Amino acid sequence: MRTCSICSHQQRPEIDRALLEGIPLRDIAERWGVSKTAAHRHKGHVAGVLRAQQALTVERLLSDLADLQQRALRLLTKAERTDDLRGALAATREARETVMAIAKIIETSELEGRITKLEEIIEQRRAHEQGKD
Ligand SMILES: [Zn+2]
How far apart are CA 39 and CA 25, in angstroms? Predict the structure, then answer.
């Protein structure tokens, strides 16, 4: 596999932005003096960066939720110790909510991972059929 001429391009941030904005490959090729094929191939690399950023966001969300869950469980313990039934019930609800939210995020990101893999396979086949520049 060849290295990507746009990944190491000096104006890569501008090209990435143009690709994300959906500016036609022909215009991008003209403006930055790259080939249309290179621009098309590099589009997949932009998606990779986006995915990495999304993965980071998911990690942060999960970490925040885990923190909230710990707090809810501490409140539950406190409420139980003081026979605060209403407080215990509320804390149980909060803890359950965080568990549900965590499960939902994990489920969604697994689905996205599967879709991403499919997209990569499709992209590889397309690139194979088109040949390389
Ligand atoms: Zn690239």
Answer: 6
Q: What is the mean pLDDT of residues 52-57?
A: 83
42 within 8 A of 19, measured Cβ to Cβ: yes
Distance between CA atoms of residues 58 and 73, nearest Å: 22
User: Mean of the pLDDT values across residues 82-86?
Assistant: 97
The amino acid that residue 2 corresponds to is R
Distance from the alpha carbon of residue 42 to the mean position of ligand 1, in angstroms: 4
Cα of 109 from ligand 1 centre, angstroms: 24
Tokens representing residue 52 in the block = 């990495």
> Whose CA is closest to 17, among 38, 43, 54?
43
Contacts of residue 98, Cβ cutoff 8 Å, sequence gap at least 6: 65, 66, 68, 69, 72
For the stretch 11-20, pLDDT in tens is: 999 999 999 8
What do you get for the CA distance between the two ends of the chain, in Å? 11
